[in-house]
Amino acid sequence: MQRYYSYQSLFKHLHLYYIINIMPPKFKDKSKKNAPRLPQVQQEVTRVKLPRNKEVIGIVEQRVGANRMIVKCMDGNERNCRIPGSLRRSLWIRPGDVVIVEPWEFEGNEKGDIIFKYTPAAIEWLKSRGFIKEGFGSEF
Length: 140
Prior knowledge:
Elements: H1 7-21, E1 56-65, E2 68-73, E3 78-82, E4 98-103, E5 111-117, H2 120-129
């Protein structure tokens, strides 16, 4: 058996709804694509991490997949590098980024781990101090 609602009961319900909430609910888009963009603020360089011992500076050339990428290093080698598990979710790397690479003990000229990613302000500091050669990497 089908129930019929009277117009009065529907009107009362809508009237109470408008009194309490003033407006009917609207769909709220919670995605970040419609969020207002904030202007980029220049970051100050406080302390820049420099490569130690066997570590070298490199530029990411290509993403291979499965947290691996091809990096052109300052020592002239091109290494197949991976992001270690401890940094996997916190370190987002794209082609053209400047990183610190730690070569493996075996196959050190071919493979390595990515340890750190430089910010644009830190890259400018490294260039001004001569840690990155002028002809090295045309990405920046």
